[in-house]
Amino acid sequence: MAKNPHTNPNSDGPHDQDFKTTEHSKSENLEKYRSDAEGHDLRTNQGIRISDNHNSLKAGERGPTLMEDFIFREKLNHFDNERIPERIVHARGAAAHGYFQPYQEAARFSKAGLFQDPGKKTPVFVRFSTVQGSRGSNDTVRDVRGFATKFYTDEGNWDLVGNDMPVFFIQDAIKFPDFVHAVKPEPHNEIPQGQSAHDTFWDFVSLMPESTHMVLWTMSDRAFPRHYRNMEGFGVHTFRLIDKQGKARFAKFHWKPLAGTCSLIWDEAQKLWGRDPDFNRRNMWDDIENGDFLEYELGVQIVEEEDEHKFDFDLLDPTKLIPEEQVPVIPIGKMVLNRNPDNYFAETEQVAYNPANVVPGIDFTNDPLLQGRLFSYLDTQMLRLGGPNFHEIPINQPVAPFHNNQRDSMHRQTINKGQASYEPNSIDGGWPRETPAGPENGGYESYYERVDANKVRARSASFGDHYSQATLFWNSQTDVEKEHIIAAYTFELSKVERPWIRERVIKEILPNIDLELARRVGENHGIEAPSSKTAPADELGTSSQADSPALSLMARLPGNIKYRKVAILAADGVDGDQVAAAKAKLEAEGAQGMVIAPSMAPVKAANGQTITPDAMLNGMPSVTLDSVIVAGGAESVKALSQSGQGLYYVQEAYKHLKAIAAIGEGKDLLSAAGIPAQEEGIFLGATVDDVFTPFTEAMGKHRVWARDAKANMMPA
Ligand code: HDD
């Protein structure tokens, strides 16, 4: 086809040249849509002032409501249509605004504008999610977490739509509907919610060995992060980065949380379903409100094109990761999440991510899972957000200006001026015009990849290894993590009703990861696992590495107590000085000390002061905090020891491997609760000073791992 004679030689339009985003561009862009009712009259959507919002218009006070009551009809009409379809996966989520700032290193690999200037902050909107459950399901279920980032760059939106696990369940997107049907609540009774512990999931994954690696990740404690700030993120697929010289390199994206990684304990996660179903979203919301922002480093693993085939797996296979020991993660920037949305629906619910949203300098590969995703997201958004104009919804609009000849359809907001809505045209001066490709011009240029192949419906033999990286992951776990994984398979399979599915997992899948894993889970189910691997050699594959320390959650523990929440148990008669000292010392370290009392009534301290509790024992139970300090004061400790809730508080904290400090008489509560005094992770002292340093060191390791086996004895 002939080239458009009106192609813009230098830029994407005369008005677009000087456009530059700042950290605040997206917020400024949203400002014109924000609505604050303070000081305003109540009106209909047509602007009519409403005089009575309590009574519908009737024929007589006790008579029928009249059709002509336009105020009533408008209100009900709007209400009746408030809901939109929830996302088919990742329905439950929480999001925050922030910014991304590149490091010097970033510009080496990609010409993308957001990576060029270390002084530049690009606005982002990040949505975290679970996958299986509906919008109203619990936060702390055993599941993958979505980690989707929209970068509002000078050159348009880039969406990095990743998860908190670096691999996926399937290799080809054509299996995605099968996988999702299998994991979702079962179709006949819509049970279970937010769970993979059911027949259809285990039936499918045990018939699809390629899912083994990812299933193993979901059976690890990664499946219920302590906080979104303690979660890694991964772009999963191998992407391409294109530098200013036009050179392409393969790249895997990583988000590394600066606060370290840590998770909940399974029993704790389950209890949180009832105690605080909003646990993760509440923590993120509260922290941002308190100025304790979430921070992550963006990293890339770079593979030169000539090294594509140097690995013992295929870079295009999304069930494989590149061990960090083979290709280090190079940090290329930092992201800070520092602002909560104003409105959940308008922003978090209506945001539409799409891995196909890329900017010049970022490109795709032939990963068949990625290729399918490039179709699916736009498609689902048509239904969920009601048609092709969802890009005009404020949260989805790029901050960069955009003009094209797309027109009309439902709810079109843009008022396109001019007569020509086609290109080329000579009526409107040829605008909007194409921009030539290349870094100096800015037009998007797809990577110049040669493809010369037969059309086949097939899978590459290089995708045949289904187990070696599962074994690598297993080998990389600490003993405690391995125990948790064994317990997870045991629990999940206990919920599977059909015996042949349980058998298939134990006899045909687990031995190929590790014989001991299979034996232990088998033992718990009364099923004898095979004594040798059962899969064919090509499925077992080979890994050039026996283990990868980076795959253990313990590799990046927080190391300090910043952002941690600590219960300070207190009742009437408590030693008020100890409470004050504990609070102050925790705060100085960036943690939060919360005074937890039997009720919300002010606590009368022994020193005559009154202390306002932050919460009461069953309002903020131990599962919602990271550790416990029992303050001294004979009366207070006696009251707590005589209360089931007081005893349960410390027992549960003990069971969930939390550091526990008891000051003065506080130790009596521990002995009343059956908690050993002389044990790692239990700190007794006459003053807060006596215990504070070892107590916080233990908290920095997140949990008292040495207690793991013993904690099961605690009946809490
Ligand atoms: Fe997906 C949503 C991540 C494979 C189809 N996906 C969705 C979200 C995340 C991911 C984080 C939620 C975004 C948000 O917060 O709104 N998905 C992934 C990752 C995958 C993956 C990391 C594998 C590497 N997804 C995948 C495949 C398909 C989809 C193979 C289909 C071929 N995903 C969708 C979807 C969703 C979605 C149905 C539901 C809601 C939406 O897109 O907007 O299109």
Automatic annotation (TrEMBL):
<dbReference type="GO" id="GO:0005829">
    <property type="term" value="C:cytosol"/>
</dbReference>
<keyword id="KW-0349">Heme</keyword>
<dbReference type="InterPro" id="IPR024712">
    <property type="entry name" value="Catalase_clade2"/>
</dbReference>
<feature type="region of interest" description="Disordered">
    <location>
        <begin position="1"/>
        <end position="61"/>
    </location>
</feature>
<feature type="region of interest" description="Disordered">
    <location>
        <begin position="527"/>
        <end position="546"/>
    </location>
</feature>
<dbReference type="InterPro" id="IPR029062">
    <property type="entry name" value="Class_I_gatase-like"/>
</dbReference>
<dbReference type="InterPro" id="IPR011614">
    <property type="entry name" value="Catalase_core"/>
</dbReference>
<dbReference type="GO" id="GO:0046872">
    <property type="term" value="F:metal ion binding"/>
</dbReference>
<dbReference type="InterPro" id="IPR043156">
    <property type="entry name" value="Catalase_clade2_helical"/>
</dbReference>
<protein>
    <recommendedName>
        <fullName>Catalase</fullName>
        <ecNumber>1.11.1.6</ecNumber>
    </recommendedName>
</protein>
<keyword id="KW-0376">Hydrogen peroxide</keyword>
<feature type="binding site">
    <location>
        <position position="176"/>
    </location>
    <ligand>
        <name>heme</name>
    </ligand>
</feature>
<comment type="function">
    <text>Decomposes hydrogen peroxide into water and oxygen; serves to protect cells from the toxic effects of hydrogen peroxide.</text>
</comment>
<dbReference type="GO" id="GO:0020037">
    <property type="term" value="F:heme binding"/>
</dbReference>
<feature type="region of interest" description="Disordered">
    <location>
        <begin position="420"/>
        <end position="443"/>
    </location>
</feature>
<dbReference type="GO" id="GO:0042744">
    <property type="term" value="P:hydrogen peroxide catabolic process"/>
</dbReference>
<dbReference type="Pfam" id="PF18011">
    <property type="entry name" value="Catalase_C"/>
</dbReference>
<keyword id="KW-0408">Iron</keyword>
<feature type="binding site" description="axial binding residue">
    <location>
        <position position="377"/>
    </location>
    <ligand>
        <name>heme</name>
    </ligand>
</feature>
<feature type="binding site">
    <location>
        <position position="127"/>
    </location>
    <ligand>
        <name>heme</name>
    </ligand>
</feature>
<feature type="active site">
    <location>
        <position position="163"/>
    </location>
</feature>
<dbReference type="InterPro" id="IPR002226">
    <property type="entry name" value="Catalase_haem_BS"/>
</dbReference>
<feature type="binding site">
    <location>
        <position position="384"/>
    </location>
    <ligand>
        <name>heme</name>
    </ligand>
</feature>
<dbReference type="Pfam" id="PF06628">
    <property type="entry name" value="Catalase-rel"/>
</dbReference>
<feature type="compositionally biased region" description="Basic and acidic residues">
    <location>
        <begin position="13"/>
        <end position="43"/>
    </location>
</feature>
<dbReference type="InterPro" id="IPR020835">
    <property type="entry name" value="Catalase_sf"/>
</dbReference>
<dbReference type="InterPro" id="IPR041399">
    <property type="entry name" value="Catalase_large_C"/>
</dbReference>
<keyword id="KW-0575">Peroxidase</keyword>
<dbReference type="InterPro" id="IPR010582">
    <property type="entry name" value="Catalase_immune_responsive"/>
</dbReference>
<dbReference type="Pfam" id="PF00199">
    <property type="entry name" value="Catalase"/>
</dbReference>
<dbReference type="GO" id="GO:0006979">
    <property type="term" value="P:response to oxidative stress"/>
</dbReference>
<feature type="binding site">
    <location>
        <position position="373"/>
    </location>
    <ligand>
        <name>heme</name>
    </ligand>
</feature>
<keyword id="KW-0560">Oxidoreductase</keyword>
<dbReference type="GO" id="GO:0004096">
    <property type="term" value="F:catalase activity"/>
</dbReference>
<feature type="active site">
    <location>
        <position position="90"/>
    </location>
</feature>
<keyword id="KW-0479">Metal-binding</keyword>
<feature type="compositionally biased region" description="Polar residues">
    <location>
        <begin position="44"/>
        <end position="56"/>
    </location>
</feature>
<comment type="similarity">
    <text>Belongs to the catalase family. HPII subfamily.</text>
</comment>
<feature type="binding site">
    <location>
        <position position="87"/>
    </location>
    <ligand>
        <name>heme</name>
    </ligand>
</feature>
<feature type="domain" description="Catalase core">
    <location>
        <begin position="43"/>
        <end position="431"/>
    </location>
</feature>
<dbReference type="InterPro" id="IPR018028">
    <property type="entry name" value="Catalase"/>
</dbReference>
<feature type="compositionally biased region" description="Polar residues">
    <location>
        <begin position="1"/>
        <end position="11"/>
    </location>
</feature>
